[in-house]
Amino acid sequence: MHIKNDDSHSNHTSELRMMVFASLFAALTAAGAYIQVPVPFSPVPVTLQVFFVLLAGSMLKSKWGGLSMIVYTLLGIAGLPVFAGGSSGMGVLLGPTGGYVIGFILAAYIIGKLSEKVENTGRPGFFINALNMSAGVLVIYACGFTQLMFMAEVGPGTALAFGVIPFLPGEIIKTAVAAYIASTHEL
Fold this sequence. Notes:
The chain has 187 residues and is mainly α. The protein has helices at 8-32, 49-77, 90-94, 98-119, 126-151, 156-163, 168-184, and strands spanning 36-37, 46-47. The termini are far apart.
């Protein structure tokens, strides 16, 4: 009996491994929704969700990072209390804060794409990871700001004051910590 040696087993193992990590990051993002700090004068609390979105994009890359956030979003739509404050349902996505959740998917994908480009020239360091993640934060807040402005029927100044500016110090800290982790650890 001759057993053919091929790489299909290692490919399947690699795919399964990435599925597990994508599921883990979806779960971590959900758990991050429960770790929140209220911000005065804003309907959106500071949570650790963005922290895990940044890590998912950087460590899982575009395909699996984006998929992990799609899974997270679908869990919330299905009724699991995974969104900020333990909320769930399609109403969250269609409400004033839904743009941030949509931004999670786009940010993880974009951070992953940026990380993939850099990895072709070597492993990205802290500074490159921080830049990639900053682009992701910008995407999250652009989506969140836009939807907050339209769904809450407020002007750009009000949307910035309540939906962006209060969160920037926390995002800087989360980005720095996530960039450090992504620079020093590999999946």
